[in-house]
Every structure is written in structure tokens, then in C-alpha cells.
Amino acid sequence: MKKVFLSVIIPCYNEEANLQKGVLAELAGYLSKQKYSWEVIISDDGSTDASKKIVKNYIANSQQFLLLANIHGGKAFALKSGIEKAQGEIILTADMDQSTPIKELEKLLPWFKKGFPIVIGSRGLVRKGTAWYRKLMTIGFRMIRGVFLLGEINDTQCGFKAYRTEVIKSIFPKLEIFKDIKEVKGWRVSAIDVELLFLAQKKGYKIKEIQVEWQNRDLSKTKQHNFLRESQNMFFEVIRVKLNDWRGKYV
Q1: Checking phi first, is residue 124 left (phi over 0); if not, alpha (psi -120 to 50) or beta?
Q2: Residue 93 pairs with which residues in a beta bridge?
Q3: b/e burial code for range 96-107 (CB count within 10 A of at least 16 → b)
Q4: What is the distance between the alpha carbons of residues 219 and 46, in angstroms, rounded to a whole number?
Q5: Above pLDDT 90, what percent of the chain?
Q6: What is the full DSSP assignment across 51-93?
Q7: What was the pLDDT predicted at 163?
Q8: Lowest CB count within 10 Å: 44, 150, 158, 240, which one?
Q9: Nearest to 63 by CA among 33, 41, 85
């Protein structure tokens, strides 16, 4: 069996509208032109719309796409399921809406040869298609989070991140969120990116942040976002990570 170089992991929760606009074909079109071997793992988070059906129909004749069906536990659990299954040397996590297009991977890959085991995308402050109040909330979160954790990183929340597989597989299962294993209802938000990057930094792994193209392309209307509640959840999650560190849980 040919060794896989790149594993792309995409969590999926009620992404019917994004899938219908052809994001899987967009991924396949780009990756099929590359010289390296690849796989795309769609890790479904208990979708209640037609997402799984659309993915199944698309990947029926493709050996390089895989669909994982999970109970609804939130993005962290969907990512964990995909990471456990991944066979590539490099793992890229990306969002289904492709707000950061897959071609931006070209900006991340060269940094692995320079010795960085973790290379993360950064959306910058100019985020096309984002409402002004969301931009303000983002700035506020960045300022508050920077006081407690990862002050040198501008954007911890961009979903476009790449890792050496052995690094991400060693760190991800240690996240505290996985001690609360249960099925949940609705859209679940957590600061897994903050906890993951903090733990990686604590273990001495170098992290490179690269600005990538980003424009809001999310068409999904079924995720039931509540931005105020999400912001509150994110704040308490950051505090939780800091408290965990003080209590010695990341030793």
C-alpha cells in the first residue's frame, strides 16, 4: 500500500449547504494535481441534515475519501476521530466551507522542512464577509486570551492548521475536553485550538503562524450559532485551560 503524505481532516456538522456548492470537488480537483499522495477524511459530528448522504454519494467511487460517522459530541470529538484514522505524514485540519481554500496549503508545507512540527493559518484582521460585531468580538477575544495564554499568536481559532502526524497524535488525546465524553445537543463550541497549541508549546514544539487567504464562504444555516453565548463559552474555556495548567494537569 502506498504511503500517504497528506491527510486532510474536515469535521462536518450540518454542512448540507456547503457540500451542495461543491467543496468536495474543489478539494479533489486541487489535490489530484499534486505530486504527493493524499487522503481526505470527512468526520461527521452527528449531522441531522443531508450532509452524510451527500458525502456518501460523492465518495462512493473514491478510495481517497473516507466518511466517519460519529455521535454528536462537538468539533473536538470529530477531529479526534479523524486524527486517529489518519495515515498521512502531515495532517491538515480544515473547515468544510473552504473559507480558507485548500490551495493555501502551499504556504504551510515549506515550513515543515524548516523544522516546524506545527504550522497554523492566520486570518488577519481583515476578514471578508464577516459582520462588524464579529470582528469586534474577535479582537476582544484575542486581547483577553493573550493576557492568559499564547500572547505571541495572533489567531488561534483559524481552522486551517497543519501538523506532523506523530506530534498531533501524541497531544490531541491529552486535551481535558475528552474527559467529558457525552453526546450533546446543538452547536457545541470549545477552545480546543487554544488548549492544543498551549499544550504543544508547553512540550517544546515550535509553532509557525502564517497568514492565509480567508473569506467567509459558510452557507450553512443549520448550525444555530449564538455568537454572544459562544464568546462567553470561549472565555471560560481559556480560563479553564489556565487553571488546568496551574493545577499541574498538563505535566
Answers
A1: left
A2: 9, 161
A3: bbbbbbbebbeb
A4: 19
A5: 56
A6: HHHHHHHHHTT-SSEEEEEE-S--HHHHHHHHHHH--SSEEEE
A7: 98
A8: 240
A9: 41
Tens digits of residue pLDDT in 7-42 = 999 999 999 999 999 999 999 999 999 999 999 999
Of 193, 216, 214, 77, nearest in space to 145 by CA: 193
Q: Which residue has the higher pLDDT, 229 or 155?
A: 155
Q: Residue 150's CB: how many other CB atoms inside 10 A?
A: 19
Q: Could you say which of 3.30.470.20, 3.90.550.10, 3.40.50.9100, 3.40.50.970 is the CATH number of the domain covering 6-246?
A: 3.90.550.10
**Between the CA of residue 25 and those of 17, 30, 87, 201, what are the distances in Å?**
14, 9, 22, 35
Can you tell me the distance from the alpha carbon of 39 to that of 25, in angstroms, rounded to the nearest whole number? 13
Which residue shows C-alpha cell 464579529?
A: 134
Q: Is the pTM of this model over 0.70?
A: yes
